[in-house]
Amino acid sequence: MRTRYWSMGVVLGGLAVAGTAWAALDCGVRPTCAELGYTDTADKCDDSGMLKCPFDETAVFCREKLAGTGCEMGSVLYSDLKCYDPDAVPSGLTAIGVVFDIYKKLAVALDESKLPWYDGDDSYEHTSAHLESCPIDGIETCGVNGKRNTMMIVDLWGYSNNYAAGYCYNYTTEGTQKGDWFLPSAKQMVKIDKSSVVVNSGLSGVGGTSIEKGSYWSSTYYAWDLPLNIVMGYGDASNYYGFDSILRTRCVINY
After folding, report:
1. Residues 130-143 pLDDT 10s
2. pTM of the model
3. What span, in angstroms and rounded, lies between the C-alpha atoms of 136 and 79?
4. Which are the contacts of 208, defined by CB distance < 8 A and separation ≥ 6?
């Protein structure tokens, strides 16, 4: 019996081909979507869009993978916002973060601080009029854009670096500037927690500070004077701490 092989060149060059086109290829058994490279789901693709499998539209391929940044989970991100094999890093580049989400292209900073969520005197009425309020069980669908949340917070309370969102807005490294980094949303913090083993391995390799077990601020707001924090090591959202509580703060960046 003759065996046929499907090359990735065919897959990547013709992902958008309609289902009938596959019938034109002389093959006895139709390949599965996974065999053709459609191994993602729609929620994993960023704004660059996706390609749907002609046999099953719930199986997709994220377009950003075609560009290729060399980044994998736990990869070190450098000051040109790219990742490299450890033995092939171009001279003059500086490590600035570690990748925790290859689909949304997100990386954590190498270090962190301990800060209040907000250090001023503000009323619930003032806060609730500006920030989206999210229930603890709604972090997958509510207030999930950390960069947008951060900008809303600093627009509300100012651009000083003595509170969590302001600190991340002002955070800079080689190759980045103010406003590039942000305080992650609760959903993004949960992703960091789920990836913490490989992330900490990457951080250790470049002398970064490990993600510790315990509470970290998110940029997602709950209600009254209670923003959401994520208990790392467990991935649980909590509203236990108030605005002025001092918690670990770790900034992230889109690369």
Report:
1. 888 999 999 989 99
2. 0.74
3. 35
4. 95, 98, 110, 111, 202
Structure tokens at 110: 């190498």
Give the pair of three-digit tokens for residue 9.
């060149």
Give the separation between CA 193 and CA 187, rounded to whole angstroms.
10
Question: What amino acid occupies position 10?
Answer: V
Q: Which residue has the higher pLDDT, 32 or 23?
A: 32
How distant, in Å, are the alpha carbons of 8, 55, 102, 196, 247 from that of 66?
12, 21, 12, 26, 39
Structure tokens, 200: 């900490």
Joined tokens for residue 233: 């090591």
What is d(CA 75, CA 84) in angstroms, rounded to the nearest whole number? 8
Cβ atoms within 10 Å, residue 66 = 11
Residue ranges per structural domain of the chain: 8-67, 76-254
Contacts by 2-7 with C-beta closer than 8 Å and gap 24+? Answer: 4/28, 6/31, 6/35, 6/36
Backbone phi, psi, residue 69, to 5°: -115, 0
Tokens 């991935």 sit on residue: 235
Tokens 């090591």 — which residue? Answer: 233
Cα separation of 216 and 188, whole Å?
12
